[in-house]
Model the fold of this input.
Amino acid sequence: MNSPLFIFCLWINLLISSSLTWASPEQDRKQILTFYQQLFPQLQFADYAQGVYAIDSDAKSSWQAIEEFPPYEFALEEGKTLFNRPFNNGARYADCFPNQGIAIAQNYPYWDEHKQSIITLASALNDCRLQNHLPALPYAKGKITKLLAYMAFTSRGQLIRTIIPEHSPQALNAYEQGKAYFYQRRGQLNFSCASCHIDNAGKFIRSEILSPALGHTTHWPAYRLNTGEMGTLHRRFMACNKLIRAPIDAAQSPALRQLEFFLSYIANGLPLNGPSTRK
Amino acid sequence: MKKTVSLFLLVLITACTYPKIQQDLSIGKQLSFQRNKGNCLACHVIEDGEAPGNIGPALVNIPTRFTSKEDLKAFIWDATQFNAHTSMPPFGKNKILTADELDHVVDYIWSLK
Done:
């Protein structure tokens, strides 16, 4: 019974079963969802689109009061004007997008098989500008947040639909890289994104409650009361990396696009509600 | 005579060292509270510190929690040695605090009854 062949087979079986413990994106998503459902049994799934306010009842009422006269309104108006103004060549942003760019934010980011890269809504806007011989806009704040605010607004209520194409190992790899980034400890303070937004979600760090990572991509761009400015999702990633004294990856760098791809995938099915206001 | 001298010396020594200890503790306290230094309040309730977080336990009864000051120091130096999954930053190992600052913090935290 204890023949070398038997031991060899046992060994092969072990190898196979250990590789089976590798989790698919769908398993990751379900596992994270279950984790938060146990942590915050009072929340409905859609509540996660409200970020930290879903679990911070004190801050929620002042947030709702602010939303009556939202500080992002100017950006939204300007964004609409910018979006509809023809370029010098007569073309418009709308011409670069499906459905004239209306109500499509839920389909971003996506994996572009042809370009072999992740296309985010922000990068698609700049691609459109480059095609029309206009310089790219900076990605963290400024003009791009206005365009994004308008596009997000027309997409309110749409459900996030992030797809990892089947039979595309590169797309899966991009997702896996984003996931690894999320769980990797970094910086002088040795935190990972998960240390704060999974392990300690709902707890106080000083006087701030830590938001769950589920819902991190629903509401961008955001007007931050802290800075008095509109900022993109990637600007927030940069702020968190600065907080933990880690190297700051640039907005729309491959690493941050992968991170967005991962976070957006696990948020599949959540309603979009950008632009928004945050502390 | 000998007795008076030694009593005098004792008083003198106490008088000189007592305020020093007090002062040292206040340095450690400041370093523990300061956001750009220990920022221990981000995660721990400590005495009268304002707006403490609740990621870690309240820092009380410290001498009953550690067998010696050296043990406490080792923990603050690098808490991941004792719990790989901890969210507490490795203050000494990652040079968040200098060796001198760390000693002040240890003196102060050790004093928390």
